[in-house]
């Protein structure tokens, strides 16, 4: 079988490696430059590849093509592949064909990385043989090739779900929906939502689908779809007969038996993280992990880097890195969880943001806005009549310096940008690392 892999990053190299290991004829093609570490990996494993161009004839002669999620479905090469009717899959689809492990797959607009990491931590903490992959960590395909895990916990994006045919998780989770990546879905929110719901389309009645009962768009879609998997809801707003919910000052999960723990024992901050903890607890209960083990994991889990990550406290001021908040909805959750007056660092590459969603929270919680971007005009214009103190910066050093001068004992400095990072930084990780570096520098470290 001739396999062509498009994209020479983590998922592409992993897929090519798995194909090679399974005795297939494999060729990897990347229109851009392949990073040195991946180029070395391909050479070491005898995988034929090209970079800087696509050999169209060779690609269109493949039996099966595995595509990086970063390649837009509107790309010319993808159109040609679809016209020829060649099977086109994501790495998660490809790798899942070669493992009998139970897959726990998590999607949603916000909270995917945190919840995926938390579920992995719960399973690992309980001694299960588990791998972590998808949109996070190491390539799922490479793990399938080299490691014999009994479980995989996968963070899955809509772009990966666009290219599945048979992908069937044992447990699927859809955490929430908000308008994101609409440029890839014809600016149609429902089209994007339906892409997320593909996580459950191949599930059968011996599988489980965990969903958010509070999410409006999920409710609308569920009225139109027939889900075969056993559906288990979670809610932070109402008590449920079955599923996960808040009961006074505790979280509860009711399945065959009941799991409960105090809200203030959870290691993660904010209402949205209560929802993430409920979803993760349900997955733990389905896998028959005992209550004490789940409780211990929820108490000791450390927040994901760049997601409401406490960097340090300087002179009574907390510095929180939420660089992963690249859309307005993610920043909504961050602001909602703030309990003290907040100096808010915001800005970057705008993705058509509508700031009305966070307007009231900003009025209530934010004492000063520090804009960080090449072009901050849209943010400044939106908030100028609503906040007295707004500052315009175009470097992380300046943003942190101004924030430190504004914050007083008992305040919080929050980097939660609402925007993509590519105007000033390589990616959101680079932005988060630079924030941490400047904060620690300001503290003399």
Automatic annotation (TrEMBL):
Annotated pathway: Cell wall biogenesis; peptidoglycan biosynthesis
Reactions the enzyme catalyzes: UDP-N-acetyl-alpha-D-muramoyl-L-alanine + D-glutamate + ATP = UDP-N-acetyl-alpha-D-muramoyl-L-alanyl-D-glutamate + ADP + phosphate + H(+)
Keywords: ATP-binding, Cell cycle, Cell division, Cell shape, Cell wall biogenesis/degradation, Cytoplasm, Ligase, Nucleotide-binding, Peptidoglycan synthesis
Chief place of localization: cytoplasm
Superkingdom, taxonomy of origin: Bacteria
Gene3D superfamilies for this protein: Mur ligase, C-terminal domain, Mur-like, catalytic domain, NAD(P)-binding Rossmann-like Domain
SUPFAM superfamilies registered for this protein in UniProt: MurCD N-terminal domain (SSF51984), MurD-like peptide ligases, catalytic domain (SSF53623), MurD-like peptide ligases, peptide-binding domain (SSF53244)
Its EC number(s): 6.3.2.9
UniProt subcellular location: Cytoplasm
Top-level enzyme category: ligase
Its job: Cell wall formation. Catalyzes the addition of glutamate to the nucleotide precursor UDP-N-acetylmuramoyl-L-alanine (UMA).
Similarity comment: Belongs to the MurCDEF family.
HAMAP family, per the entry: MurD
Protein name: UDP-N-acetylmuramoylalanine--D-glutamate ligase
Species of the source: Chryseobacterium indicum
């Amino acid at each position: 079988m001739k396999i062509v892999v498009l994209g020479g990053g983590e998922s592409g190299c992993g897929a090519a490696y798995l194909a090679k290991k399974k005795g297939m004829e494999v060729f990897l093609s990347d229109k851009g430059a392949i990073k040195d570490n991946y180029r070395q990996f391909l050479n070491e494993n005898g995988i034929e590849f090209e970079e800087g161009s696509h050999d169209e004839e060779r690609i269109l002669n493949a039996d099966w093509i595995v595509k990086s999620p970063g390649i837009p479905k509107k790309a010319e090469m993808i159109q040609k592949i679809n016209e020829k009717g060649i099977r086109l899959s994501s790495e998660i689809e490809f790798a899942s064909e070669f493992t009998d492990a139970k897959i726990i797959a998590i999607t949603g607009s916000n909270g995917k990385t945190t919840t995926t990491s938390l579920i992995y931590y719960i399973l690992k903490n309980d001694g299960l043989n588990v791998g972590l992959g998808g949109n996070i960590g190491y390539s799922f395909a490479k793990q399938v090739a080299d490691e014999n895990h009994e479980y995989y916990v996968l963070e899955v994006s809509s772009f990966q779900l666009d290219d599945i045919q048979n992908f069937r998780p044992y447990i699927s989770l859809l955490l929430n929906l908000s308008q994101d990546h609409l440029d890839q879905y014809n600016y149609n929110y429902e089209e994007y939502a339906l892409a997320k719901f593909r996580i459950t389309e191949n599930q059968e009645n011996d599988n489980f689908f965990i969903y958010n009962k509070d999410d409006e768009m999920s409710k609308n879609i569920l009225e139109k779809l027939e889900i075969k998997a056993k559906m288990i809801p979670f809610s932070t707003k109402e008590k449920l007969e079955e599923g996960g919910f808040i009961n006074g000052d505790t979280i509860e999960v009711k399945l065959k038996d009941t799991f409960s723990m105090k809200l203030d024992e959870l290691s993660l901050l904010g209402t949205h993280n209560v929802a993430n903890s409920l979803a993760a607890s349900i997955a733990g209960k389905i896998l028959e992990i005992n209550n004490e083990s789940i409780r211990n994991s929820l108490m000791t889990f450390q927040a994901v880097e760049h997601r409401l990550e406490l960097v340090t406290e300087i002179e009574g001021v907390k510095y929180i890195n939420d660089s992963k908040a690249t859309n307005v909805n993610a920043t909504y959750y961050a602001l909602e969880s703030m309990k003290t007056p907040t100096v808010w660092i915001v800005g970057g590459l705008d993705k058509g943001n509508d700031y009305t969603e966070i307007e009231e929270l900003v009025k209530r919680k934010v004492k000063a806005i520090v804009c960080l971007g090449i072009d901050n005009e849209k943010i400044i214009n939106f908030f100028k009549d609503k906040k007295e103190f707004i500052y315009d910066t175009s470097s992380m050093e300046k943003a942190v310096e101004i924030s430190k001068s504004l914050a007083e004992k008992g305040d919080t400095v929050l980097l939660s940008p609402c925007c993509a990072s590519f105007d000033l930084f390589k990616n959101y990780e680079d932005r988060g690392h630079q924030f941490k570096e400047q904060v620690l520098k300001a503290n003399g470290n």
